[in-house]
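User: Please run a holo structure prediction.
Assistant: Happy to. Please share the sequence and the ligand.
User: Here you go; the ligand is adenosine-5'-diphosphate.
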Amino acid sequence: MLPLIAQVALDVPIPRLFDYVAPTLTLADVGRRVCVPFGRKEFVGVVLALSRESAHPREQLKAVTAVLDDAPLLSAEILKLLHFCSDYYHYPLGATVLAALPTALRRTPAPPLRTVDSWQLTALGRTAAATLPQRAHAQRALYASMQDGAAYSATALAAASASYRTTLKHWLKLGWATQLSQPAPLNPSPVSADTAPTLNAEQAEAVSQISAVLGRFQPFLLHGVTGSGKTEVYLHLVQTVLAQGGQVLILVPEINLTPQLTGVFRARFPDIEIATLNSGMADSERLQHWLAAVDGRARIVLGTRLAVFAPLPALALIIIDEEHDSSFYQQDGLRYAARDVAIMRAHQRTCPIVLGSATPALETWHNAQSGRYQRLSLTQRAIDAATLPQIRLVDLRTQKPEDGISPALAAAIQRRLDAGQQSLIFINRRGYAPTLICRACGWAAGCPRCSTRLVVHLRERQLRCHHCGYAERVPHACPDCGNIDISPAGLGTQRLEEGLQKRFPAARVLRIDRDSTRRKDSWPAMQQQIRRGEADILVGTQLLAKGHDFPNLTLVGVIGADSALYSPDFRASERLFAQLMQVSGRAGRAQHPGEVLIQTEFVGHPLYLALQHHDYVGYARTLLNERRAAGFPPFIHQAVLRAEAPQIDAAVTFLNQAKAAAPASAAVTLFDPTPATMTRKANVERALLLIQSPNRRALQQFLGVWIETIYTLRTSKLRWHLDVDPLEI
Ligand code: ADP
Ligand code: ZN
Ligand code: ZN
C-alpha cells in the first residue's frame, strides 16, 4: 500500500496546508510535529490530517524528513479549537496552529523535558546486599538507607553515603539497583500552607451555583466589587474540581500578576503541580510548564492570554480573572480575544467558565443581561471591617494644582503622613512630561518615525517615543527658532514624583511605572518594600492599579483622568471607569477606611458621579444605552481591514481596491478607508477600513468570501491584516 499523505500546518503567510509524503505515519499521528522541507529551508509543522490522496501528483510531493515527539502534542480537541479560531479570525490555519505551540516547540531541536533521577534496589539487590561484608562500609551505608525498596533522590542518597555515586554505578552494572527518571517538579521550593476561610453567604452561593454545573457548558459572570473575595471563590471551585480529578485553567491579565496569584494557589494546594504560562518566561522554562499541562501532571494552569490554547486532557473549569482587561486581546499575528476563545473552548469541552470582574466588559454585561451568561454578585467586601472607599471629586476650577497636586489632595496626603499610612497617586502617563515645547514659536518635539509627540524623560535626559522606541537627547534650544527657553509641558510620573518629593521632603516617594520596573525583579522587590512600610507615597501608572493588596494604603489620588473623557475611542469611558474603580479599590482594603480624591474639571460628569456611588450597574446601563443609540458594539459586530505602507496613499488605494472587490451583502456595511488615528508609526503609514453588521453570522460569511479576493490583490511593499471584533478602531 502507498504511504499516507500528511497535510501539514506551517507558520507561513499562505492560507492553506501543505502535502507531504509520510512513509512512517498512521492515522493516529494527527497532531504530531514533523520536520518538512519548505522552499530552501526546513520547517517544523504539525500534521492536521492524513489521507490517501492529494490534489498534487504524488511524484511532485516531498517527504516528511523527521517525525518529532513520542506522541501527538496537540489533541483533536485543541485542533478543533484552532480550526474555529482560524475560521473566525480569518487567519491562516497553519499560522494559527503554530501560534498555539510554545516557541521552543516551533523549532528543532526542542529542549528536552527536564527530569529528576532516583534509584531503587531490585529484588536481587535486596538479597545480595544484605550479605555484604562488614568492611564494605560505603556499600552497607547505602544499603541501609535503601533496603525498604523505595526510590531515593540523589540528595537523599548523598546524605547516606558520600561515595554513593560510585556505589550506584557498580550496583547498576550488577543489576542490584535501577534508575528511575521522572519529570522534574515545576514548583520545587516548598511553601507554607494556608487554610481556607469560611465563605460568606454570597461567596458560598456562587461556589454552589457553579459547582452544580460541572460537566456542563455554562458561562458565569462573577460580578464582585473590589475586595469582595472573588479569589476565594476561585479557590473553592478549584478545590472541588481537583477532588474530582479535573484540571483548571485560570487566565489572568498581566504577567505581573501571575507570581502573586500562583503564590496564593500554591499556599492553598501545596501538593498540586501548578503550571504557569506567560510570555515573560524563558522559552525552555515555559516549555516545561506547557508539557506538564499537556500530560496532565499540572492540575492547575495559570497564565496570560496565550494559555488559552494549552491542551489540557482533564480540563473541567475555566476561570478568567479581571475579564474586562484589554490585555486579553492579542494585537498582532493571530489577533484574538482570549475571553471569547475561552468561551468557545468551554463550549466545545462542555465545562463551565467563570468570568470575574468588578467592572465587566460591556459585551459581557450585555450577555449577562440577556441571560446568555448567568450572573452571580458579590456586593460586600469580604473582610468584615473593610468598607468601600469614599470617593470625592476635587474641582480643579477652584482648587488650583501646584505641580499637579491640588491643595485638597496635598492636605489629604499630609494627613496620611501624620498617621503613618500610605498614599497612592495615580497618573496614567509615564516619563517626566508628555512633550517638550517652545513657548516662543510653538514647536513641539515630535517623533521622526511616528505621528506623535516625544515624551520627556528628564532623568535620562532623553526624549522618547512610547510607540516605536525612538530616543534622542533633550535639545538645548528650539531646533526651529533657536530659543533656549524650551520646557516640558504637562505631567508624567517622573515630574509628579519630583514635585511630591519637593513638597513632602521627609516622605519616602516611590515611583512605579514601566520604566522603574524594567529590571526583572524590581517590581516584586518594590512590593515587598511597600508591604514593609518603607514607602509613604506611591506614584504610579495602571501597573499599580491592578490586583495588589497593600493593607496600609488608605488614600488614592487620581490625576489627569479627564483626558480620557474627550478621547475619540468609543470605549474610552468604559475603560476609564474600570480603571478608576480598580485603582479606588486599592484604598482601605483592611482595617482603615479608604478615601479617593479625583482631580477633575468636570465634577458633574456622569462617569464621576457613578463612580462616587460605586454604581457600575447604573453606569453600564447608561453606556449600553448610548452604544445602542449610536450603533456601536455589542449591538453591532465589527471587523477592520488594516493596511500599512511606506506612504499613506498606497495603503488607502489598497483598501479602496479591497472595498471595490467586496461581495455584495445587504447585511454588511463597508465604510470608506481612512488614515488611522496615529497615521505614521515606526516609519509606516497606516489606514483602515471598517466593516460592520448587526448580524454576526452575515459578517462572518461576508469576511470568508471577501478575504479570498483580498489575497489575490497586488500588495507589493504593503502589509495588511483583518482584525475581527477589534478592541480599537
Ligand atoms: P477581589 O479579588 O474580589 O478583589 P480578594 O479575593 O483579593 O478580592 O479578597 C479580598 C480580601 O478578603 C483578601 O485578603 C481575602 O483573603 C479576604 N477574604 C476573601 N474571602 C474571605 C472570607 N470568606 N473570609 C475572610 N476573608 C476573606
Ligand atoms: Zn521655537
Ligand atoms: Zn515613534
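The two ends are 54 Å apart (CA to CA).
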